[in-house]
Amino acid sequence: MTVAKGILYVVATPIGNLGDISARGIEVLRQVDLIAAEDTRHTRPLLRHLNIRTPMLAMYEHNEAAQLDKLMACLASGQAIALVSDAGTPLISDPGFPLVRECQRKGIQVSPVPGACAAVAALSASGLATDRFYFEGFPPRTSGARQQRFRGLVAESATLVFYESSHRIRASLTDMATVFGADRKAVLARELTKIHETIVSSELGRLVAALERDADQRKGEFVILVGGALKNSDDVSPEAVRVLDILLEALPVKQAASLAARITGEKKNRLYQLALNNEVDG
Ligand code: SAM
After folding, report:
1. Which residues pair with 113 in a beta bridge?
2. Pocket test for ligand 1, best of 17, 83, 89, 93 (most atoms within 8 A of CB)
3. Which of 51, 116, 167, 210 is the most buried (most CB within 10 A)?
């Protein structure tokens, strides 16, 4: 028996390929008394595929507060509940936070059943640094607010991870190229685990141009990963960091630092140190 009574299980479901659910996830969905689903119409095909007949209750962003009391009463009476979202890990840019917080407050056990998460899947295949990453979720919807949010992240040295929909992918990437610079390394991960899975590793400017050329590349679901800024750059101008970053792609550290210093007027030693730190830590 995998499932214990009176527990909330937070169950990750596939982000595309229906095979991407754990054996434990399947057992939990089969054995719990109730599945709280973001959209029952969305979860039903998965349950049908797994031949699971557990009753479902819809819990989405706008009825979450109203459903909370009902679910807490079920848990208090000893029922086991699984929380699922439409795809991937619940609460990661998905509903569920109020329920989990309330369980924690009331001393009801919450148990994760890990599995797919688009951000982590994209990161694992991106080739960008994974030692530190900064998950930003969906950028704001309007260009002004987006650019403002991105400006706050320009100096962040961790890899940046964003979610974006097909409606705003071009606009968001364009704003990223404007704020982070067209030369900043970036990876566009589209339709992961699905038929049209595409992972393009390039720079922001080139990614924008590629989407403008090919409308098909604007379809589907996206994770955008942006390489972090060079580290310890507080006392060096962003332009010098940018130039150094580009030169480091093709040249050894000493030569890149020397050339960047000549181009930008920054101190050679400082740029050399910066490049070394980045080589060591990045
Ligand atoms: N909770 C989910 C998770 O764990 O990944 C994310 C839910 S969020 C509402 C949906 C967004 O995740 C999409 O707009 C897209 O940015 C990203 N996403 C989900 N599935 C994806 C996939 N197969 N390929 C690329 N991105 C995906």
Report:
1. 11
2. 93
3. 116
